Amino acid sequence: MTERYLAARLRGFGTTIFAEMSALALATDSINLGQGFPDVDGPAVVAEAAIAAIRAGHNQYPPGPGIPALRAAIAQHQRHWYGLEFDPDTEVLVTAGATEAIAAALLALCEPGDEVVMLEPYYDSYAACVAMAGATRKVVTLRPPDYAFDPDDLRAAITPRTRAILLNSPHNPTGAVLSRAQLEVVARLCVEHDLIAITDEVYEHLTYDGVEHVPLATLPGMRDRTVTISSAGKTFSFTGWKIGWVCASPELTAAVRTAKQFLTYVNGAPFQHAIVTALGLPDDYFRDFAADLSARRDLLAEGLRAAGFTVFPPRGTYFVTVDAAPLGATDGLAFCRELPTRCGVVAVPNVVFYDDADAGRTLVRFTFCKRREVLEEAVGRLATLA
Ligand code: PMP
Ligand code: GLN
Questions:
Q1: Which residues line ligand 2 (CB under 6 A)?
Q2: Of all atoms in ligand 1, which is nearest to the CA of residue 101?
Q3: Residue from 166, 200, 267, 317 whose mutation best tests the ligand 1 pocket (most atoms within 8 A of CB)
Q4: Cβ contacts of residue 87 below 8 Å, gap of 6+?
Q5: pTM of the model
Q6: 202-217 residue pLDDT tens
Q7: Which domains does the chain have, with CATH numbers?
Q8: Which of 27, 204, 255, 346 supports an S-S bond with 34, CB 3.0-4.6 Å?
C-alpha cells in the first residue's frame, strides 16, 4: 500500500533494517546485537547536567545554530584532538544528530542530477538522503579482509556530475578505519576535481589497537572543502539525545544551515547544555571508553570465531562484520531473520548496505556495545549454531 503514496524518489527504501531487527529482537525476546546502541548509559555527570539544564529552565527553542557554549565546546574539541581551528560563530552548526547533518548537507549542496560518491557498504540514511536531494549515488566497494578501497575504483566513480564524496570513517558496518594513505587519495581527488567532501565521523573516538582517526579536513587542501560531521551519541553513550554537529568553512556552514533550519529548526535544548559538560570530560574518559569497548570487541570476535564465522577484526566503531558462509548461509538477510529462532540472538545483514549485493551477500554485523555478561550469553547461544 505504501507504494501507492510514496514518492518515486523514496521507493524501495521501506523500513530501515535497524527498526526491523530491533522489532524482531523484542518479538522473540532475543539478545539484540543488531542496532548499535549501548545498554549502559553514559557518564552520570553528563546525565546530571541534562537534568540540571531542565531544572534551570533551558526548555524552549535554543538558537538556530545551537547554543553558543556548545558551539564553543565543539570548536575546542576539534582544536584539542585534531589541531583544527573553527570559528564557533560562523563555522560550527549544531544538528539533530549526525543524521540531520548528513541530510541537511546533501539537501543543501546537491542539485538534482548531481552525483555523490560513497563507499559501500554504506550507512542506510546516505542512500535515502541522496535520493531525497534528487541526486544519484555512485558507490565504491570496500572489500574484505581489510576493507580498503581501490584508488582506481574511486577515480573511476568520479564524473563531471560528481558534486561530493561522502565518507564514513571509522566505518559502519565494517569497523574499518581509513588509513592516512587512503584519505590522501580522497583528498587529492577532491582537490583535482573541485569536489566537496562530507565526512561522517560519529565513531571518531572509538578506535582500537592504537589506530588513529584522521579527520579528512586535516589533509592539505581539505579544510575549506570538507563538511565534517559528528555527534555525541556514540562517544558518550547517549544515542537517544540526538545532538550532532557540523564543522565547515563559513560558506559551507551557511549552506548546510539553510537546509537544517527547515528540517528540525532546532532540537534538544537541555541536551545541548549537557553535551557541553560531556565534551569537557578529561581525555582519560575518551581513552578508557575506547579501551573498554575494545575488550568487549575481543570477547565478541573470539566468540564469533569459535562459533564458526569468519571474522574481519574491526579497528573501530561498535561493530564486527563476519561472513556467515562457513555456517552454511547463502543469504545474510534470511540468515538474520532466522537467527533469533535458531539461537535467540539478533544481528544485521550487511547486504542491505550494498548496491552490489553479491559483495555483501553472506556478511553479517554484530554490535559489541553491550555489557560483558550480555555478550557472554550471546556468545554461548551462538556456539550452539555449529
Ligand atoms: N552515521 C553512522 C555511520 C552511524 O552509524 C550512525 C548511527 N547512529 C549515524 C550516522 C547517526 O548518528 P546520530 O544518532 O547522531 O544521528
Ligand atoms: N547507527 C546505529 C546502527 O548502525 C543505529 C541507527 C539507527 O537505528 N538508525 O546500528
A1: 16, 18, 35-36, 172
A2: 16
A3: 200
A4: 75, 250
A5: 0.97
A6: 999 999 999 999 999 9
A7: 2-42+284-385 (3.90.1150.10), 44-279 (3.40.640.10)
A8: 346
